[in-house]
Amino acid sequence: MSKLKAAITAVGAYVPDFILTNKMLEEMVDTNDEWITTRTGIKQRHILKEEGKGTSFMAIKAAQELLQKSGADPKEIDMVIVATATPDLPVAATAAYVASEIGAVNAFAYDLQAACSSFLYGMSTASSYIESGRYKKILLIGADKMSSILDYTDRTTCIIFGDGAGAVLFEPNEEGLGLQDEYLRSDGIGREFLKIDAGGSVLPASLDTVKNKQHFVFQDGRTVFKYAVSNMADVAERMMDRNNLTKEDVQWLVPHQANMRIIQATANRVELDSSKVMINIQKYGNTTSATLPLLLSDYETQLKKGDNLIFAAFGGGFTWGSIYLKWAYNS
Question: C-alpha distances in angstroms, 156 versus 5, 150, 164, 284?
Answer without folding.
Answer: 42, 10, 20, 17
